[in-house]
Predict the 3D structure of the following.
Amino acid sequence: MLELFKVVVVTNLLASFVVYSLSKHVAFFASTATMDFLFYIVIIIWVIARLTWEGGSQSRNWAVDPAANKAKSMVSGHDFESDFNEQKKQNYQFGLMMFIAGLPAFLGAAFLLFLS
């Protein structure tokens, strides 16, 4: 639980830095409202989560990739299916952590929305 808390804090700090940097250099991200700032943080974190979190969807590239099929045929005695399943499990866990990391900023933005 402490590890998850550390990931949430570090992720939010990094996303805050990215949004702050973008606000200085990109006009679209330049905003003065705290709610907008929090919303951009949520978008950045949840885009990263979506890019990594397969969430049960099957990756079709590995099975139809000719180079991967050639590599699998050249290596004997290696269980590629277990590697693929381990990779999916790690992607799911990382995506879930990123989703959870975006919740504080999302709840903060929602709180500010209902406050106004």
In short: The radius of gyration is 19 Å.
